[in-house]
């Protein structure tokens, strides 16, 4: 999910020689911990959202398996993209391009964690959730990282599905079945990904161009990128009200979604009228707000779910 969150926030500036402490830290960085934190939270909300009694052990195992699977995908992504990471400002301090870790070690680490996460989910939760987790890892590694990322400016639209699966997996882990509610959670993140990532690409287009990654601003230009961002924003905001339409959430969540959506529109309007997509302009605040936006959408889904039990 939204790997750019980790890239932009930075992953450590230490370029010193290997040490046991640094080695452990670098294995942690392979998991893309900032991305993982959002994955863990959305997966947890997906698990809690169904109107069922919560089994805390099952919830812990399910969310931990999703987190490990997401981290495994990140490690394999770093192994494959090491040539790109070496030339991009945001990613050149990652363990492999910085020379602190051998590529083969990262690949083996990712494969082992992938198998472990799927096997644990299958044995301790349910096969349906494990199957979707396995598909998510496959999709992120082979469809997004290897196939799409370097070939099409629509890479994050199609590839964004991988980041939208975790809350869906959480929901299926709790219920054992697919349903409209799981699809609703998927849709929110899937439609959020393009405006979020293209906001980053607008102020980082020279970085992507240097690495030869065909992000939309690099290939199609700023104007067409903004048109696409408006299009997906127009789809995103109604989708966030789907929990209310489906009767899963009530007025607390609905009101929050409307307010958060209004601020999202404000940032989108600033980007639209901005004439320079470089660092420090409207695209950067929108990128950071979009992270907060998604987090708060899921916070209020959770609040609306547990509020009746509290009051």
Structure description:
The chain has 311 residues and is mainly α. The protein has one domain (4-310): Orthogonal Bundle (Tetracycline Repressor, domain 2). 76% of the residues lie in helices and 0% in strands. It is built from 16 helices and no strands. It has helices spanning 4-9, 20-30, 33-48, 56-80, 82-87, 103-124, 127-148, 155-159, 161-175, 180-203, 205-211, 216-219, 222-239, 242-245, 251-273, 283-310. Helix 4 (56-80) runs antiparallel to helix 9, helix 7 packs antiparallel against helix 9 (161-175) and helix 10 (180-203) runs antiparallel to helix 13 (222-239). It starts with a helix and ends with a helix.
Short description:
The chain is an all-alpha fold. It has helices spanning 4-9, 20-30, 33-48, 56-80, 82-87, 103-124, 127-148, 155-159, 161-175, 180-203, 205-211, 216-219, 222-239, 242-245, 251-273, 283-310. It is globular, with a radius of gyration of 19 Å.
Please estimate the helix content: over 70%
Q: What Rg, in angstroms, do the CA atoms define?
A: 19 Å
Strand content: under 5%
Mean model confidence by pLDDT: 88
By CATH reckoning, the class would read Mainly Alpha
CATH topology: Tetracycline Repressor, domain 2
* Series of secondary-structure elements, N-terminal to C-terminal: HHHHHHHHHHHHHHHH
> Roughly how many Å apart are the termini?
34 Å
Number of domains: 1
Taken from the alpha-carbon principal axes, the silhouette is globular
Low-confidence stretches: 4-21
Tell me the structural class.
Answer: mainly alpha
Number of beta strands: 0
Number of helices: 16
CATH superfamily: UbiA prenyltransferase
What is the second-level CATH architecture? Answer: Orthogonal Bundle
Question: Largest sheet at a glance?
Answer: none
